[in-house]
Amino acid sequence: PRWSKPSRLPLRLRDGIEEHWPRVHEGFEVIRRPGLLALALAFNLFGWLVDILISWAFGKAFNLHVPVVAYVSVTVVIGLITIFPITFGNVGTFELAIVSALALYGVSSEAALGYAVGTHLFTTLFNIGLGVAAMLTMRMRPGEVFALRRPAAVSKPDP
Fold first, then answer.
1. What is the b/e burial string over 121-133, where b = at least 16 CB atoms within 10 angstroms of the residue's CB?
2. pLDDT, tens digit, 9 for 90 and up, residues 3-26
3. What is the distance between the alpha carbons of residues 14 and 92, in angstroms, rounded to a whole number?
4. Which residues have CB under 8 Å from 150's CB, separation 6+?
5. pTM of the full predicted structure?
6. What residues have CB less than 8 Å from 29, skipping those under 6 apart?
């Protein structure tokens, strides 16, 4: 940053700010450019609509008869539970939140719990499958993933 205040900070903190500030500054580019902001908002809205559509499709699969606004509520609840995980994998809290949201629309506890467990199980397995597929596509080994280090560069044979 081009301001004098970091010079008064402890060296370690100042070094951290100076190292990370360029990326933080770049991250705010979307706010400085209205076109980028509009695009980011459009993509965000599209993402929410896709999530609502997925919740609705699960609702149809589980034979729930609730209005579309119920699926908006479920999507918001899933978003909140995902942001603030309380248990490992959100097991239990995910289901409780969805059962509670669906109870507002008159869905029985049994049907809501079936929907919650089914959606949680399916989405978790789907995400694990996507992760494994991505790992295989990038030619990563499980040891590289679990060691939290960069994978070794894949060498290309000489032509």
1. eeeeeeeeeeeee
2. 555 667 777 777 777 788 888 888
3. 42
4. 144
5. 0.69
6. 36
Summarised one tens digit per residue, pLDDT across range 37-57 is 999 999 999 999 999 999 999
Task: Report the 3 state secondary structure along the chain.
Answer: CCCCHHHHCCHHHHHHHHHHHHHHHHHCHHHHCHHHHHHHHHHHHHHHHHHHHHHHHHHHHCCCCCCHHHHHHHHHHHHHHHHCCCCHHHCCHHHHHHHHHHHCCCCCHHHHHHHHHHHHHHHHHHHHHHHHHHHHHCCCCHHHHHCCCCCCCCCCCCC
pLDDT confidence band for 156 (50 / 70 / 90): low
